[in-house]
Amino acid sequence: MPREHPIGRVEDFPESGHRVVRVANRELGVFNIRGSFHALPNLCPHQRGPLCEGDVSGTLDCGPHTDWKLAWIWEGEVVTCPWHALEFHVPTGRCVAFDHIRLRTYEVRVADGELRVVI
Amino acid sequence: MATDVSPAEAAAARRETLADLFVVDADVHVHEDPAALAEYADPPWDVGLREIAKVEERYLDLPGVSPRAEYRVPFPGGSNRRQIVTSAQELRAGLDDLHVDQAVLFPDHLLSLAMVRDPAFAATLARSYNRWLHEHWLTEDRSLKGALVIAPQAPAAGAADIRRHAGRGEFVCVYLPAAGLKVLYGHELYDPVYAAAADAGLPVVIHSVEAVYPAFPFQLEQFRTSLAVHALAHPLSMVANLVSMLETGVHVRHPELKIGFMEAGTAWVPFLANRLDKEYVERRREVPLLQERPSRTMRRFFYGTQPIEEPERRADVVALFELFDGENQAMFASDWPHHDFDHPQHVFGLPFSREARRKIMGLNAARFFGLDVSA
After folding, report:
1. Do B345 and A54 touch (CB under 8 A)?
2. pLDDT tier at B303 (50, 70, 90 boundaries)?
3. Could you tell me if B348 lies within 8 Å of chain A, comparing CB atoms?
4. What's the complex ipTM?
5. Rounded to an integer, what distance in angstroms lies between the CA atom of residue B329 and that of residue B301?
6. What is the distance in angstroms between the Cα of B330 and the nearest Cα belonging to chain A?
7. Residue of A51, A60, A40, A58 whose CA lies nearest to A86
8. A18, A72, A83: best mutation site toward chain B, by most B Cβ within 10 Å?
9. Which end of chain B lies in a sparser environment, N or C, as judged by fewer CB atoms within 10 Å?
10. H helix or E strand, kind and range, residue B252
């Protein structure tokens, strides 16, 4: 049965910021993207690096949907592993380079000014 | 259940971890500082190095010293990890985290040494670096071993430097820079270097770097991305230099010399061995000094693992290693702290046999570099 685990006050997770928390025997990266909270495992599936200690930015895209032009997308939504720079789209957990790799995403709820991750 | 268990059985039953193994990292990089090298440089190059020290450097890119011709457009993001190491203590701490017992130190900026235009400056850079490395790193921590740098533009100076440091256990190989090399390493002009290395009992290691430079085997200016340039720069350097050394018979002229190839992965090795064997059938008369199929010779060379291949089926790495006797000739290398380093846990975790794993993680490197396994 999923349970809510408190991880801190809302003000501890300012907009555009992210940090790693330990909760329920896990390390999770908790991200505030334009007021919406997301959590991912702090473990890169490539060589097991500390994914969520990496920086958050946008990324580059190109294809028929961009008319074959380089485009800067997902500003503030992409975390890059500090070890080998593999990128993940935070809201979906999707690995940008390998579409079939999806990280588990955890629901983060706000109640009484407190952030709670659902595990 | 039986309770009498021999120590060997108990050991076999216990799952071996990385910490149980003797781990040698055949390729880590130290960050040389031009102001520090100036302290060891011959005049007037010391003056020039102090001037270079005022320039803001970028990753493996320092005007005058590592002229890499970086054309990439930077975008925000990318790895935020520190990718340089500036002291023996800092390096040892990083290697402790990686469970590395002994490591062989290569430079950062001097990866591009072959591109330095003035042979006298190149020779001074190499000589200064070797003294600086010896005093500030190798005698600081005995688990750190040195790759002695020579400038290919000045082979006689390189040979003299090898003889100067010979007999000291701190240097365990001679590093031959391959990026931007104007004369490939098969040429006889390098014979003094090979003779000095063989006399000193030091193997030579060829190591390249990503760069755009108008010298074979590069000519990579047609490509737009680092993906293309980096993918090709390292293995093309290795392929070109190995073929050059093989066709002129460096291994025949210097039979005691051990030869290693670093930082190009290993997938190119079976390709080249097969290709050369095929040529040898038809063109042996051009290379009569070769007494065996090239693939046999190549099985006596050593190869760094990094960047380890990452096929979709991990077991393919084991199959790949079988094609070039990687069990005995491959040496774990991390390339720490560079952007594409391999964590030893990853290589350790590949489905090699227990025996092969021990050799690849450390014993092969001990054999190649002459390291003391009990140290």
Report:
1. no
2. very high
3. no
4. 0.71
5. 7
6. 20
7. A51
8. A83
9. N
10. helix B250-253
How many residue pairs from chains A and B have C-beta atoms closer than 8 A?
Answer: 48
CA B138 – CA A15 distance, rounded (Å): 47
Residue contact B343–A58, C-beta within 8 A: no
A79/A89 Cα distance (integer angstroms): 7
Tokens of A116: 């709670």
Interface of A with B (CB under 8 A): 46-49, 53-60, 72, 78, 80-85, 87
A89: closest CA among A19, A38, A27, A22? A38
pLDDT tens figures, B208-253: 988 877 676 667 888 888 899 899 999 999 999 999 999 999 999 9
Structure tokens at A106: 């955890």
Rounded to an integer, what distance in angstroms lies between the CA atom of residue A94 and that of residue B14? Answer: 37
- Is B78 in CB contact (< 8 Å) with chain A? yes
Q: What is the pTM of this model?
A: 0.89
Q: Which residues of A touch B340 (CB under 8 A)?
A: 84
Strand partners, A95: A88
Q: Quick one: which H or E segment has residue B2?
A: none
Q: Which residues pair with B170 in a beta bridge?
A: none
Amino acid at B3: T
Residue A58 is nearest to which of B77, B310, B345, comparing CB atoms?
A: B77
